[in-house]
Every structure is written in structure tokens, then in C-alpha cells.
């Protein structure tokens, strides 16, 4: 038992810190710290900085231009990025599609798509969810009908994150309507410039445009854009979902959020003293910090086991639940700390310019973030689904 | 002991509910929200015509109500319909302040208010006051026969649409003294007043207001010089009863939307309301809703009591509703899933009303501290 | 709307208070306040004092010797009894069986049994639950087979509260083994002196002997002890369960418990100041008091509606859940307040003599009560069953 | 970074687990509990033979362990089996105090302790100390070459079975000063010592002890005169790590019993573990259990750090375990239903161990206050 990083791990951390000190643009880290959107340009700029260093694909093998870091290194990198308020890596091409193509794609697909993910030429988005199939993915209804050497796609996807920036989409489509739920599904790569695709914005309850509906009307996709075998898409989808689960605990986000709440609570005055000294607020803050300290160790335990080659089991479902509860609790504390300043809807603050705002620093985005992050326990496999999984695995033999 | 509404209040409730069901559609609400002043003037006029504004004020100033249960009856309905019009600010907060002026200076304004022709805002909170009721740094200094105001007011709800502000300012004493506070009626277009308005997350508007040597005649003072603390506390008490009831109404709608959704939304081949884990969570929501209803009754029923008793029940109600409201809003979103995250679906509006209500006049912890202090006293 | 008692109600309350001041023995109220058992004798003494005043059966019609009080009066009586630390009325004969006999019993049964309930000659206990049928009452298996003008009973009942003091038991037995679950059940009155009945104690986790198993081996019960019709027992059982639900919120118990915690928190010292002044403890206390204030009003709303003739609906399930949560939270606060003195198991204190105990006043029983009252959310229709009922009624049409 | 037990600790864990599975049946536990001294001497002897007591003490006093992870490994197993023997009091609390005496006065006692021949109790808490670590009113006054003790100690665990007490008393300073505290070794049969012992709710015994001018030689002092605060804090830190781990073990068993029960108990024609509402609650228990496991690792891993860091992590762990423990104990009882209320069913014992652990060395709130204080420092 040793809770400390090894000398090699500490050296790696120092390397990451130095890189972030030197290369992370302050306009981007300011925006992230203040909860503002960095837009398409910001994401692309940060990706290209990472790519220049060779650090854009921590989980890819070296052969494809990745870092081949182990779980502990990836954790250190993510932790330091959060601490430095670096933008998150947009995951659709890098974390989700990349590993699927590496494992199940054809040589041609790998050669064509992987470099373009790294270069930023392709911005991918995800076509999984459908209206009427939220956590119940297997019930999807978007149809792909073979017509010569094309599939013809009709249907609708939803909750497509940052689809407004994307030029490619990977989709689950039903290729065999008679098969049972999870069978008869295929995994297709679709150029979003193809005629018949329409992207419609979904405005979220905090006023942001993060997600979209994507409508397909007689969209023709060449058969060579099928990944793996027809009707085997569910296998690839499950593989993708497993990979999506890295950093599922969100420890770094929570840590950065907690630091922000502490700053705010030291600034906000309550009866002439900093709010941080109020025993009730201090108790709420301490309690979530204690929960986070424990979860960070749970996270490290799983990462350490993963680095030693063990496959994560039901623990990732536990981390998803506890991790989102903690992040949401921190968002709740931030809105409490802001007092009456949680009320204004400073939508301009989210998009960049807050020069004409009269709000104290750090209060402009607290309500929007509180509401926006209610999604954490809904998307990515709702917390109810995670609990079903935990109970099934742990009680499985018995019930 | 009697928990029935009086016949008059029952009629008022019925007619208000009918009016809002007919006229206050989601489209109307969106129109109200997107207006630069944060509400729709024609809805305001109709509320006045219905007699809703008068029902919130006592008879001796021309109203026909003003008791705790009048407030709770009206605001529960406004909350159920998700109304964003500034009834609380103009009629309850400012109306109560004007009505309690012993000299009756506000009589003409109240008349206009009840008729729907006047909009008001109470400029009271400040950057450092947080939720303290008498923490006022803004100064009012005599300058001959005039008064000069210097200071800044924060998150003044309804300022952008208001004709006048009622401004609290200190004529003497330290920042949090009971003594030394006065109230002044100020035209929002007065010179020396700078206003930066912003939309509110849950609808309506609020402004940061700077008073830069704003000069008003001393006749603008409402109530006793340096002795406005009790007026302020009484008006805040009425506003808190109204806000608690409004939040209760929004909680009812959020719960109802959730139950409707669970009955229609299919997943894994059956309505999601047939899943026991979700059923038990709905049961918990319904239990909390009954608790909130009782808390509002307790607060409304003690509004006419002496201040310490009044405020203890109000603090209790507001603390309970902050907790129950958070639970219901968050559970309603979670049980809906993705659709609840969209601005388009009605639940979003109700969740915001519920959560952000906690940020007016004191959050759960502040109310708990007040309750503890008032219980010890 | 009026939250205050009427002049008549206030006068009634004064009458009850005066009675309690004059007639409630202090040894009994001391024992109740300190959480000690008052034993069979104590219960019988208090019952006979109430009976002498004609107040032993608040919910019975006058014709049978009851008070015929309305719901508000009964509430006032219960509230005042709790406040004065009077023993609770043992409910099995008075609250449970009495109303069943009055509605469904024969004239002979009414004439024979009702006066003996009041006089104390009969101490009743309840034979409902069975091992293997906890909240699922309808699955009971105790058999009653007709043999001439007797039923022959074989089977086992459990959780029979105070069965060790009882000389009569009312039982649900299965008279038609082929009928569907709730059918084929009958309601029998059984003299516990009949051969073949054995009462075995169940010791609870706090060391107390409150409940028992009752075993029946070829027990012969005269057919005239059948209540109502054969195989219709479920109807009577449901009627009884509805009546058991009076005072389901336990407002008076919670109020008395809260007062006790406050006393204890003023005595216990923390860093040289009374614990009551510690902000964290004060916050817990205030929160449960706020919850109780609201629940008391919910309770009054329902009582007021009942007094006006409305049947209580799903609200009694809500009161059961919230009421037990509040009582258990108060028990939890009491153990917290006691500090290290919650650890000793002063079992002698529960039975009467605490003269050789070195513990501060009010701390001896806190842990035992905390553990004992975990039963509140299990027995009497578990809180899970109550939530099923609430969801069924409220979501019923929709799912 | 490495979360594997060392080979030695793994072996110790295996052998202890095997021993307890074989010998520490529910019947054995009942026998231990019903003994007047609160434990079974033959079990104690066997624990000593297994080397468990020595594993809790450092090498320089003849043990072969004594690090945080030694404590957590041993106590998690003791907790899993529901052991009531006073390992924490004799070996951890008193063993650590004796081992930290710079003069090595306790060497002979430690030898006997490791061999299983000595029982000890730390007489430290008082009526007014609640959970404060250095709040001592008991006075030690010099009387020639002797020391006279006057005062009362409360809820002294294992006093009835102990050969000696280690008594904290104040030679100078005010009630809660850091300076002035000393420790004294006192024979439990000494004159002037009055002991009233009582069984504990969760097994074991504790006593109220009065020192009525008890006279001991000054050579009975352990550690520096008036300078024992750091020794006391270090021993309490070790004891808290042990207690946290023990509680974790008990939480594991309570959770396991619950899962087993849900799989076998039938209701409404199916195993109750198939009801989704109950499944989700089991999932929550399992999540809390992982949190508790990590909290124990954090506390054990920081036991050798400097006091402020050490105590911050311990306070965090104990706060979390108090909350998670309450949840798991109460949910285990509730999910079992009636059977959990009986003394006969094993769960009752584990629920009591979990809940009453909160009453040693500081409950959830006290630990939270400590964490806040230590985080600010």
C-alpha cells in the first residue's frame, strides 16, 4: 500500500505541468474557469496545440499517433488539465470513434479517418440516441436500407452534442427490422455534407446550444462506410461506451469546481464576515470535500488496477453515480454561495464578453452551470441505469 | 380549527385559475419573459381587472384583502401557472410598504397600483447585505431641505419596468443597526440614478442601481425618518409568504408534469411509471409536497401575529420549501430524463422558478439560522 | 382558514389537562418520560383510571361505553396525553378489535366482549403476521379446519405485541385452502388458555421483550367465536387496519421526544458550552422541528377533514412515512446528544430501577430507543408498502 | 501508487479471517458478550497466539507492525466478524501510549500485552469532555514523592477486565489547555478507586470511575510530566484508524447479509431482491461501502504523517464512515424487515457495532468541525 505517486509518475506530472504553463492560452483557461463557452475556434486551437505536442490522443496506440499512456498517466494528465482550467478534449472522434476504428475498422477506414481526427480536418459527432429511446438504446428506429452500394438512411437522432460544429457523424442504424432489439443494428460513418441531413438546435434550459437533433431523409451512404459487419453494430457500440467511461468520476472537474466555490465563499460577505466562515456553509463544503477525497481514492484504486491489467467492472457504474452526485452538489454550493447574484441570467457571460456586467466575479455562470449539469446524472447512461447494473451484477445470482 | 378557504377566497382562486388556464399559455409566458421589462403589460392589466392586485392589499388603503391567506391563495395560483409578472414586487413588497406609511403618502400610488397603472420596485439589497434584512450601506444625507442618496443597490427585481423605486437608505447608525433606516420614493428616471438591467434566469428582470449623489426632496421619505425597520420587516414577511406560496404552486405543477410523463413515456416496453424505483421517488415527491403545503399554511396563518412569532413561522416555511423544492425540482428533472434539459419543455421553467426562489430573502441555511435565533428568543 | 382551536375545543383541552394533572400517577409518567417499561400492572392501572372517567375508548360509540369524540377531540386528547407523558392506551382490544366487533360482530359477541375490554378482564393481542408473510399479509398459512362445532387451528403467528400479557387473541386464519390469496380467510377470537397454544418470547435487538411468537397445535375454538362470515375475514382485517391508523403521524410522540432532546442538549456540555448552542447540532434540531411543525399541520388538516366526514385517503400513507421518518430522526438526535453515554446498555434502566447507574439523566435509554424505533418504518405496513400505495393511487390510471 | 497489501499483511489478513470464520461463531460472540468482563479470555489468548496483538505495535517495543495499514488490515477483519474483544483498548490505545513513552517504562507491560497476558484500559473521557481530546478536569497533585488523583472518568471501555488503567490527569493548566496533562499507570484494584461497570449496547463493558484521593508513586507517571498531549493525540489517532476499519468491516457484513437475505426471502411470490426500489437501495449501499473503504485507506495511509495532516484525514474518514455507516445500518435493517429487529439474528449485532462506533472519539458533527478547523489551519 502506498498512496503516493512514484518518482516516474511525479516526473511525468511535472512534464505535464510545464507544458500547461507554457502552452495553454490564458484566454482559453480564463473562459473555462469562468464557465464560458470557448466556441468551435477555441476547441480547435487547443486540439492543435495538443496535437503538436503529440498529446491529443492519450489512449491511442503509438502506431496511430497516440501516447499509449497507462491509466495512471492518463489520470495525471486529466487531473493537471482540470487544475489548469484547460478545455476538455472533445471526445467524439478521439475517445469514442478512434478506439472503435482501431479495433473493428478496415485498414482503409483507419488510414483515412484516424489522421483526420488528429489533424482536426474531421469534427465528429455522435448519432446514438433517438427520441423515444433514451437510456433504452436498443430500441432505436433509424433505418438503413441497402440500395446497390449505398445505404439509404431515414430517421432522427437527438442529443447530438456539438453537432453544429461537426462535419462527420457516426451512427447506429437499424439494418434488419425483423431482428430482436439489440440485433440488426449497424455502425455507419456519415459525411454530414451528404444531401438529406438537417441539424436542428436544441436549446437547453440554461439557454445554451450544446445539443442538436439530426434528421435523415433519404441520405445515401456508401457501403464502405460501414464499420465491421452489418448487424453487428451493437458490439461496437458497447465497446465504445466502455471507452467513453474513462474519467467517468470527473475528479478533476469536481476539484476545480470546489476550488471555485471556496474562492467565492471567501469573497461573499455574510453578516460582515466571509461566507466561508459561516458554520452551515462550511459544513456543506467540508462534507462534499470529504466525499470527494474518498472518491478520488476509489478512482485511483480502479485506475491502479486498470494499469495493472484488470478490467474495470461494476466499479465504473459506482463512480458514475457518486461522481455525478458530487459534481452536482458542488454546482449547488456554487449557486448558494452566489446569494442573490445567482438570479440574473447573464447569457452574454457564457459566450465571452462580461465587461458590462455588474456581478461579482465568479457568480455569473453559477445558475446556468447548476441547471446544465443536471444532465450529468441523465446522460451517459442515467444513474438509474447504473444502479440497475450494479444490482444486477451484485445480486445477480440471487434474484 | 378550519382549513377551508373562505367563500370569497375560493371564488378568487377559481377565477384566477380559470384566467391563467385560458390566457397564460407557454407561448404567453415566453412572450412575457422575452419582453425587455420582463413581463407582458396586457397580462398585468388583466390581472388588475380581475382584482388580483387589490386582493393583496388591505381595505384601509383601498384594497380588499391583504391577509396571509389572500397572499397564499393568489400566489399558489400564480406559481402553478408559472407567471413571471412582478406581482410580488409591485403589489406585495412595495404595496405593503406604501400601505404601512402612517402618513398615507402613498395613497395615490396605491390607487394606481390596484388599477394596474403603476409599476414599482423595492431597491433594498446590496452587494454585501446577502440576505440580511437591515444591512444597508447606502446613505441618505440631509442637504438643506433635500436628501442626497449615495450607494449601490443589487439585484433590484422589476427595476427596469418600474415607474418608481422605494429605496432604503441609512440616515444614521452603523451598517446593520435597526435604527437609522429610512425609505424614499424615487423616480426611476431621476438624474444621478444609473441602472444596469439584466434578465433573470427564471423570468423577469433585475438591475444593479447606483445612486450618485441623487437629490430628492425630503418629502420623498415614506414612513418615519430613521425608523423604517419594522415597515421593511413587515413587507419582507408578506413577500416571503407570497414567495413560499408561489413556490408551492410551481412544485405542484412540476410534480404533476412528472406524474403525467411517467404515465405516457415508454421505455423497455412499458410506461416508466411502472418501475418501482421511480414510483417510490414519486411517492417521496408527493409527501414533500404535502409538507410544503402545510408549511405555507403555517406561514400564511401567522402573518398577522407579532413579528417574532410571524418571522419564526415564515423562516420555518421558507427553510422547508427550499429543501423540498430542491428535491422536487431535481427529482422532476431526473425522472423526466433528457427532455427536462430542454428550454422548450415546460418543466424547465418551473424548475427554475423553484430553485431560484431560494435566492430571494434568504436561502435554506439563512432561514434555518433565523429560525434558531427566533426559537431561542 | 383558521389555525386556532375554537372556544369549545379549547375548553375540552383544558378539561383533559385538568384530568391528567389530577389523575395521572407520577410513577407512570416518570417511567414514560425516561423510556422505561411500565409493565402489565402499569398499563392496567392507567386503563382503569381512564375507564373510571369514561375516557378509555375515545373512538367507540356511547352505546358501547365509548366517548364518541370527533377526530379533533381525539387528537387533542392524544396530544395532551403525550405531553403529560401518559402511557399509551394498549390498542389491541380498544382500537383494533372493538370497532370490528361493533361493525361485524354478533350481538352475543358484542355483549360479552366489549364490556370485558373496558374492564380489563380481557387483555387482547393480535394474531395477524406470520413468519414468511411480513408485509404480504394475504399469504398467511395458519389453518382452521371445521370439526363439528369447533375449528381446529394449526400454525404459527409472530410479532404478537405484548402477547405475554394477553388472555385473548384475535387471529386471521385460513379456512379455505383452495381460495385465492385474500379469499378463504376468517377472523377468529381465541381464548389463550385453550390447550395447544404456546407463547414464545422474541427478544428484540435492544434487549426488550415486547413481541412474541404464538404457536397453535390442534387448538379447538368454538364456532361461535367466528366474527362475521367464514372466509370474509379479509374484509374485517382491512377495516381494522384502517382504524389502527388513527394517530398514525405520532405527532405527540415526536413532540415529547423533541422536548426530551432539547433538555438533553441543554445539559450536555460541548467545549464548555451547552450542546444546544453548537451550530451543527442546533441545525439538526431545528430542521426536524420545522419538519414536525409542517407535519402537525398536515395531520390537523386530515383530522379536520375527517371530523367533517371525509374519509382519509392516501394521506394516511403519507403521514405514516413522514411521521416515522421524523420520529426516527428524533431518536437519532437523542443518541447523538448523549455522546459517549449512548454506549452503555443500561437494561435495568428500562425496567425500573436506575439508582445505581452513573449516567446523566435522560441518556440511559437513548440507544435502546433508537434501535427499537427502527421498527416504526417496518411494522404497521412498512414504509415501502405505503409508498407502493401512494404511487398506485396517484399514478394508478397512468401505469 | 500501489493499493495492494504487502505479502506479510496479506498473510496476516488470511490467517485472521480463517481463524475468525472457524472459531468466532455467533454462539462464541454471545458467550463473549455475556461474560461479566465483556469478552472471552480464550479468544483473547488465541488472538495473541496468532500474533494479532504484536502486529499492532512497532518493532522497537517488540511488536512487528504498528503502521496504519497494519491497524486497518487487522481491524477490518475484526469488524467483519463482529469481534467484541477489547483489542482496540488494550493493544491500540494503551499499547500505543506505552510504546510512546520515551523512557520505555511500559516495556514489561507491552511484552505481557503482546503475549496476551495483560489487559488495559485508557481512562480519559469525562462527564464534560464530550469528544474533546484534551479536556481533562481530573487533577493530579504532588504530595511529597507521591501523586494524588482526584476526579471522575466516564465510559472507560474495558475497565472491568483491565489489570491496569492509564489515567490522564492534569498537573497544571486550565481544563482544556494543551499543557499540563500527564498519564499515570494505575492498578485497577488500587485503594481510592471506585468503579461502576456496565455492559455496552454493542458488546464489551465500560465503567464510570471515581478517583477519590487515590495515591500513587510519581514513578507511575508515563511520559513527560505535563507534556502528554501529543502522546494522547497520537494514540487516539491510531485508535480512530482502527475503529474506522472495524466499522468498515461491520458495514461489509451488514451489506452482505442484506444481499443474501434479498436473494432468499420471498414475498408476493418472488425474491424481494427482484424489486427495483430495493435494488437501487442496495446499489446505494454498495456505493457508500466503496466510499468508506477509500476513506479508511486515506486515514491509514496518513497515520504516519505529521499530526495536522494525519488528523485531517482521520477526521474526514470518521465523518464519512459515520454517515455511510448510519445509512448502511439503517438500510440493512429496513431492507430485512422484522427479522432485523430480533436480537437473535446476526445483523442486530453488526448494526449496533456500526452505529455505536460513532460514539467513540467523536461523532459525525465533531469530526466535521475538526476537519474544518484542520483545513483552515
UniProtKB/TrEMBL annotation, chains A, C:
It comes from the Bacteria. Residues 231-393 form the Acyl-CoA dehydrogenase/oxidase C-terminal domain. The keyword Flavoprotein applies. Keywords: FAD, Flavoprotein, Oxidoreductase. One of its GO terms (cellular component) is plasma membrane. It holds the Pfam family Acyl-CoA_dh_N. One of its GO terms (molecular function) is oxidoreductase activity, acting on the CH-CH group of donors. Residues 7-121 form the Acyl-CoA dehydrogenase/oxidase N-terminal domain. Residues 125-218 form the Acyl-CoA oxidase/dehydrogenase middle domain. Its EC number is 1.3.99.-. Its cofactor is FAD. It is an enzyme of class 1 (oxidoreductase). Gene3D superfamilies: Acyl-CoA dehydrogenase/oxidase, N-terminal domain, Butyryl-CoA Dehydrogenase, subunit A, domain 2, Butyryl-CoA Dehydrogenase, subunit A, domain 3. Belongs to the acyl-CoA dehydrogenase family. This is Acyl-CoA dehydrogenase. It comes from Phaeobacter italicus. The lineage of its organism: Bacteria, Pseudomonadati, Pseudomonadota, Alphaproteobacteria, Rhodobacterales.
UniProtKB/TrEMBL annotation, chains B, D:
It comes from the Bacteria. The keyword Flavoprotein applies. Residues 6-84 form the Acyl-CoA dehydrogenase/oxidase N-terminal domain. InterPro entries: Acyl-CoA_Oxase/DH_mid-dom (IPR006091), Acyl-CoA_Oxase/DH_mid-dom_sf (IPR046373), AcylCo_DH-like_C (IPR036250), AcylCo_DH/oxidase_C (IPR009075), AcylCoA_DH/ox_N (IPR013786), AcylCoA_DH/ox_N_sf (IPR037069), AcylCoA_DH/oxidase_NM_dom_sf (IPR009100). Its EC number is 1.3.99.-. Keywords: FAD, Flavoprotein, Oxidoreductase. It holds the Pfam family Acyl-CoA_dh_N. Residues 129-198 form the Acyl-CoA oxidase/dehydrogenase middle domain. The keyword Oxidoreductase applies. Belongs to the acyl-CoA dehydrogenase family. This is Acyl-CoA dehydrogenase.
Amino acid at each position: 500500500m502506498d498512496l503516493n505517486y512514484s518518482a516516474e509518475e511525479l516526473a511525468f506530472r511535472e512534464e505535464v505541468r510545464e507544458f500547461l504553463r507554457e502552452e495553454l492560452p490564458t484566454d482559453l483557461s480564463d473562459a473555462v474557469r469562468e464557465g464560458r463557452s470557448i466556441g468551435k475556434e477555441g476547441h480547435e486551437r487547443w486540439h492543435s496545440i495538443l496535437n503538436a505536442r503529440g498529446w491529443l490522443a492519450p489512449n491511442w496506440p503509438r502506431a496511430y499517433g497516440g501516447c499509449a499512456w497507462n491509466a495512471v498517466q492518463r489520470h495525471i494528465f486529466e487531473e493537471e488539465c482540470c487544475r489548469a482550467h484547460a478545455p476538455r478534449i472533445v471526445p467524439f472522434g478521439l475517445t469514442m470513434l478512434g478506439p472503435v476504428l482501431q479495433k473493428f475498422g478496415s485498414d482503409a477506414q483507419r488510414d483515412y479517418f484516424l489522421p483526420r481526427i488528429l489533424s482536426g480536418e474531421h469534427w465528429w459527432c455522435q448519432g446514438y440516441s433517438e427520441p423515444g429511446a433514451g437510456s433504452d438504446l436498443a430500441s432505436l428506429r433509424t433505418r438503413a436500407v441497402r440500395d446497390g452500394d449505398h445505404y439509404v438512411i431515414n430517421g432522427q437522432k437527438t442529443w447530438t452534442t456539438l453537432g453544429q460544429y461537426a462535419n462527420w457523424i457516426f451512427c447506429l442504424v437499424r439494418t434488419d427490422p425483423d431482428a430482436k432489439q439489440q440485433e440488426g443494428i449497424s455502425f455507419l460513418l456519415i459525411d454530414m455534407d451528404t444531401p438529406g441531413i438537417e441539424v436542428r438546435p436544441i436549446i437547453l434550459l440554461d439557454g445554451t446550444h450544446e445539443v442538436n437533433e439530426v434528421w435523415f431523409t433519404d441520405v445515401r451512404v456508401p457501403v464502405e462506410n460501414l464499420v465491421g459487419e452489418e448487424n453487428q453494430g451493437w458490439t461496437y457500440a458497447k465497446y465504445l461506451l466502455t471507452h467513453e467511461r474513462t474519467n467517468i468520476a470527473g475528479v478533476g472537474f469536481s476539484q476545480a469546481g470546489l476550488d471555485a466555490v471556496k474562492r467565492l465563499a471567501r469573497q461573499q460577505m455574510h453578516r460582515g464576515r466571509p461566507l466561508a466562515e459561516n458554520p452551515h456553509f462550511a459544513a456543506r463544503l467540508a462534507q462534499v470535500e470529504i466525499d470527494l477525497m474518498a472518491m478520488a481514492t476509489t478512482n485511483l484504486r480502479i485506475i491502479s488496477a486498470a494499469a495493472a491489467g484488470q478490467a474495470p467492472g461494476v466499479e465504473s457504474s459506482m463512480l458514475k453515480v457518486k461522481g455525478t452526485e458530487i459534481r452536482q452538489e458542488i454546482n449547488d454550493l456554487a449557486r448558494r454561495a452566489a446569494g442573490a447574484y445567482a438570479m440574473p441570467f447573464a447569457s452574454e457571460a457564457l459566450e465571452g464578453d462580461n465587461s458590462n456586467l455588474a456581478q461579482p466575479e465568479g457568480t455569473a455562470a453559477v445558475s446556468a452551470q447548476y441547471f446544465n449539469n443536471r444532465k450529468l446524472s441523465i446522460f451517459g447512461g442515467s444513474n438509474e441505469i447504473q444502479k440497475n447494473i450494479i444490482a444486477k451484477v451484485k445480486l445477480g445470482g440471487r434474484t | 380549527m378550519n382549513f377551508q378557504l373562505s367563500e370569497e377566497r375560493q371564488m378568487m382562486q377559481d377565477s384566477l385559475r380559470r384566467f391563467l388556464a385560458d390566457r397564460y399559455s407557454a407561448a404567453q409566458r415566453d412572450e412575457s419573459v422575452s419582453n425587455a421589462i420582463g413581463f407582458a403589460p396586457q397580462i398585468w392589466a388583466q390581472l388588475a381587472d380581475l382584482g388580483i392586485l387589490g386582493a393583496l392589499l388591505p381595505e384601509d388603503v383601498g384594497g380588499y384583502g391583504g391577509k396571509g391567506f389572500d397572499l397564499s391563495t393568489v400566489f399558489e395560483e400564480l406559481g402553478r401557472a408559472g407567471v413571471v409578472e412582478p406581482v410580488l414586487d409591485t403589489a406585495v413588497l412595495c404595496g405593503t410598504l406604501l400601505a404601512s406609511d402612517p402618513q398615507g403618502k402613498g395613497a395615490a400610488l396605491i390607487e394606481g397600483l390596484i388599477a394596474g397603472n403603476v409599476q414599482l420596485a423595492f431597491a433594498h439589497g446590496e452587494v454585501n447585505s446577502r440576505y440580511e434584512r437591515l444591512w444597508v450601506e447606502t446613505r441618505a444625507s440631509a442637504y438643506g431641505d433635500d436628501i442626497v442618496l449615495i450607494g449601490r443597490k443589487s439585484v433590484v427585481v422589476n427595476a427596469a419596468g418600474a415607474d418608481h423605486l422605494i429605496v432604503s437608505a441609512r440616515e444614521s447608525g452603523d451598517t446593520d443597526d435597526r435604527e437609522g433606516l429610512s425609505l424614499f420614493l424615487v423616480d426611476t428616471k431621476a438624474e444621478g440614478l444609473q441602472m444596469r438591467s439584466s434578465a433573470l434566469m427564471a423570468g423577469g428582470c433585475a438591475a444593479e442601481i447606483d445612486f450618485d449623489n441623487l437629490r430628492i426632496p425630503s418629502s420623498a421619505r415614506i414612513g418615519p425618518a430613521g425608523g423604517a425597520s419594522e415597515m421593511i420587516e413587515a413587507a419582507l414577511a408578506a413577500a416571503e409568504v407570497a414567495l413560499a406560496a408561489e413556490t408551492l404552486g410551481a412544485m405542484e405543477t412540476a410534480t404533476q408534469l412528472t406524474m403525467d410523463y411517467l404515465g405516457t413515456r415508454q421505455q423497455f416496453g412499458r410506461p416508466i411509471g411502472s418501475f418501482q424505483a421511480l414510483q417510490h421517488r414519486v411517492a417521496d415527491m408527493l409527501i414533500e409536497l404535502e409538507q410544503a403545503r402545510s408549511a405555507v399554511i403555517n406561514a400564511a396563518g401567522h402573518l398577522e401575529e407579532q413579528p417574532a412569532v410571524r418571522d419564526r413561522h415564515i423562516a420555518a416555511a421558507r427553510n422547508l420549501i427550499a429543501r423540498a423544492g430542491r428535491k422536487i425540482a431535481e427529482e422532476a428533472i431526473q425522472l423526466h430524463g433528457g427532455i427536462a434539459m430542454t428550454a422548450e419543455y415546460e418543466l424547465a421553467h418551473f424548475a427554475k422558478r423553484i430553485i431560484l426562489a431560494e435566492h430571494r430573502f434568504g436561502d435554506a441555511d439563512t432561514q434555518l439560522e433565523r429560525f434558531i435565533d427566533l426559537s431561542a428568543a
